[in-house]
Amino acid sequence: MWLKPEEVLLKSALKLWVLERANRYFVLQRRRGYGEDGGGLAGLLMGTLDAVLDSTSKVAPFRILHQTPDSQVYWFIACGASREEITEHWDWLEHNVMKTLSVFDSNEDVTSFVQGKIRGLIAEEGKGSFIQEEDPEKFREAILKFEKCFGLAEQEKLVTYYSCSYWRGRVPCQGWLYLSTNFLSFYSFLLGAEIKLVISWDEISKLEKTSNVILTESIHVCSRGEDHYFSMFLHINETFLLMEQLANYAVRRLFDKETFESDLVLHDPLQITKRGLENRAHSEQFSAFFRLPKEETLQEVHECFLWVPFSHFNTLGKMCISENYVCFASQDGSLCSIIIPLREVIAVEKADPANKGVSISIKGKRAFRFTEVKDFEHLVAKLRIRSGTTSSPHHTASTEVATTSDSDNLVDYYEGQLMAGQKGGSSKTVSTEALMTVFHPQDADNLDSKMLKEKMKEQSWNILFVECGRGVSMFRTKKTRDLVLRGIPETLRGELWLLFSGAVNDMATNPGYYTELVEKSLGTCTLATDEIERDLRRSLPEHPAFQSDTGISALRRVLTAYAYRNPKIGYCQAMNILTSVLLLYAKEEEAFWLLVAVCERMLPDYFNRRIIGALVDQAVFEELIRDHLSQLTDHMTDMTFFSSVSLSWFLTLFISVLPIESAVSVIDCFFYDGIKAILQLGLAVLDYNMDKLLTCKDDAEAVTVLSRFFDSVTNKDSPLPQAVQQASNLNDTKSYHPKVDITDLIRESNEKYGDIRYEDVESMRCRNRLYVIQTLEVTTKQNVLRVVSQDVKFSPSDLEELYELFKKEHFLSCYWSANSPVLRHHDPSLPYLDQYRIDCQQFRVLYHLLSPWAHCANRDSLALWTFRLLDENADCLINFKEFACALDVMYNGSFIDKLKLLFKLHIPPAFTEVESLSPSKGDDLSKEELIHFSQLNVGKEKIDIQAYLKQWQDELLKKEENIKDLPRMNQFQFIQFSKTLYNLFHGDPEEELLYWAIATVTSLLLKMEEVGRRLQSPTSPAKSPASAADSSTGSQTMLKRDSAPEQTERRSVHSPRRDSQEWSFAFEQILASLLNEPALVRFFEKPLDIKAKVENAKTSQLKARTRV
């Protein structure tokens, strides 16, 4: 590898390097302890230094120096991991550079030319490389060491590397940790002890930062039940964050493709860089904090001051800028934040040049003033371009911050947007009113105590709107949170849900989108629409709004439109309950966008087939219980109780367990604080019932305690009609539990658990996601093994190892492809057996590694025919049961079973004629040829349903296949069958005896068939016995000859014209003939153990896939 020229003093390196070659201008050296003189104490010391020290010598044992006569300074220009590599560089210098150097007059010119040439070579190499790091030279060295140590595929992208210690027991081993797109790798070499560790990210079930008496701070990695500890990092938080991101990326890509396919940022593993991952983490945190669309990426961050008009002071914070938004969050405890959509901006001005001020004016006569902004002039120009505004004199007067706003501005704006999207007949299909205003209009003359409290709430919010503004750009402060905790007024609930969830931005940027979706989705008939129709009447059936066609129709339109928008999710249970509540307080289009915000941003992965997101948050909840309610965890030995009882809390945001008037207060907090509000309330519920739960003897009793508690929760200030409240509290009269007000419960949850930070919740989500998905994978494996074990004779441990190899081969095909078709083969919604399937190329790799017949010269053809035999439904994929059953016959089958398998491989539908494309490759098939032949359905059609049912019935009855039902084998197929037998015997101790046996059987069969044919067709011309003998002899000669094809032959599948009188053989004939040869019987009945093959496959599978 060419390196950026660096000065070295040769004298200081003489004891570490040995001279190999030299000329007038260059020196080739070998690291002492490597090569011919390797070993001994010098080798151990040099290897240890190379592994520990961060120097170029740690990379390669060979190097080339540039020298000039009479100079003590040398220039390090190249290094190599092998003698062949460094020799190639040396030869290039002698042939391309040495002749040119003779024309220079001075040594300075020579050195300058060599340096320029080497830099040019590096630049040329870098054009197609993945290197995008801050220090390209150092990173190139790390890549070389990474490739040399681990031998992974060239496409494996090194993201970054760190110096650290790996703990083997209580002994730390200093070395280097390499983080790549698919693997965590560690290498250490200390005094002859080499440690090489490669863990794929998809095998990691636990990744966390830990500390104990010995390790003050370390990173704990659990993979396949083994614990690994890494410590002594210079920046452990940075390292852990990158490891977490890479593990989460790999798990999503391989196990959870439903959410990954929509993620374009990380869709190509070859484009992942350390800087890119860091930027992504910041962007995700930015968009989640401000509830912006996921597409927004953080582009700039400026530390500055924001003038807060109602408090009359400047607050310090950070201005965050993305493509379409300017946001600000304060750094002090006031929790002041704002969101300014650039679509609302009408002017951007330099407010106070002396204080580096920027003023941003928006619609509604409001402006925001930022000061002490670094490079404020450039920022002003950039924001003007993005917002499409220019500096105008009439805006200057309005740059003073106006705190008044039209309270109806937001409502009027969105009503205009809604009507704009509903021109024509579509306005008849979409409701423009919240159901609560239709079914429970507020009576202005009713001034009972509840309505008076409601009016006071509205007045408090109106005062806040006057101070902080109204709409998407309002100031959000501690006062805003306090008002949310007290409960949002009924009349403002829909507007503020839309605002706090960020759905207001989606709706504003997509006018008319919902109406268009409704028109497209109406009348569609899918599995999702069938499920929606089934659940419509189960959605808040106690509420009058959903006892009428108005509410049911609106619910149907919203759910159907969302299923049409996002078919990956479609429709899942609990979505109907949530949407029903949204429709009560929001207009139909607003409810749709609220549903989008919940399903796609606020509760990611909740509403898919495996509800992974809900399971992850349950795991987070369990972790918080252990931290905050340790008494409960000490009493409850099984934490799964909390998972089972809390699932509905998370899926329905407590709507399914609380009365409707109380549940809406929980949703108020959820839209403001996100999942943190649900976690806090869950802890408060358990804390409130702590004493009763501690006395419970079993889970059923604990469930009863919690059910009675939820029945007793009320909202004493709710203005909802009594009919609705009674409907949701039918059991109140039977409950002796004291009443608990939801407002008090929410306030208590914030006082006790408000210190839970959003960043900590996200970190716990990421950490527990690995555990949840690996747990689901273990469940899948257990179910598959239970089914397959009934049909094979492998031991449970061997079968489990085979499953891991099968699954690993599936993943290895996904590692290095940006758009791997293999990813489509993994579908978690399928039955357990069909979740992982492999194609012919993957099967060939496993066949080479595991089959006892893999030593055959025609092993590729055997693998192809075996795959075609197993692929009964002709979809070019096989599952683990089919794979394991084939291996079981090869290893544990009787003589007849193995012979029957070989016979089937040489007749249709498995058999297909394969001729050679390249004589130099012999019987080997390229990947393209293998896939091509595997897809040819020669005499094979898709199985119809009746045939499938019959096959299933036969399997249940364990019906033995009648050998008389097998079709006859024609002469050409028999020749190929005999060739395969010859190949199988190669290398066997009785090889010569087996060859004679098969020759005898072949000759006998040919003679028998000739006699039989003559007897059946006496009128036809027949060969004389001599000619028959000649024919059989010729056939044996053909079988024994090397199967390498001629130059002019090509691989193809064809049906050559056969003689109408060609011979054919029944399986019984072949079986009877082979049984007469004891050597053949001994060969096939010889016991075979798969353990050695499995162990070898575990170590060489990755290398085999790398070669492919």
TrEMBL record:
Question: What Gene Ontology terms describe where this protein resides (cellular component)?
Answer: cytosol
Provide a Gene Ontology MF annotation, just one: GTPase activator activity
Q: How does it assemble?
A: Interacts (via domain Rab-GAP TBC) with RAB11B (in GTP-bound form).
Q: Identify the stretch(es) annotated as Disordered.
A: 1016-1057
Q: Where is the Rab-GAP TBC domain?
A: 487-674
Subcellular location(s) of the protein: Cytoplasm, Cytosol
Q: Which SMART domains match?
A: GRAM, TBC
Does the record carry Cytoplasm as a key word? yes
> Function, please?
Involved in vesicular recycling, probably as a RAB11B GTPase-activating protein.
Domain EF-hand residues, every copy? 858-893
Q: Name one GO biological process term.
A: glomerular filtration
Kindly give the CDD domains that the UniProt entry links to this protein. PH-GRAM1_TBC1D8B, PH-GRAM2_TBC1D8B
Q: Which organism is it from?
A: Gopherus evgoodei
Full protein name? TBC1 domain family member 8B
Checking PROSITE patterns in the record gives:
EF_HAND_2, TBC_RABGAP
| Comp. bias (Basic and acidic residues) | 1039-1057
- Any Pfam family matching the protein: RabGAP-TBC
- Ranges of biased composition (kind: Low complexity): 1017-1032
Provide the alphabetized UniProt keywords.
Cytoplasm, GTPase activation, Repeat
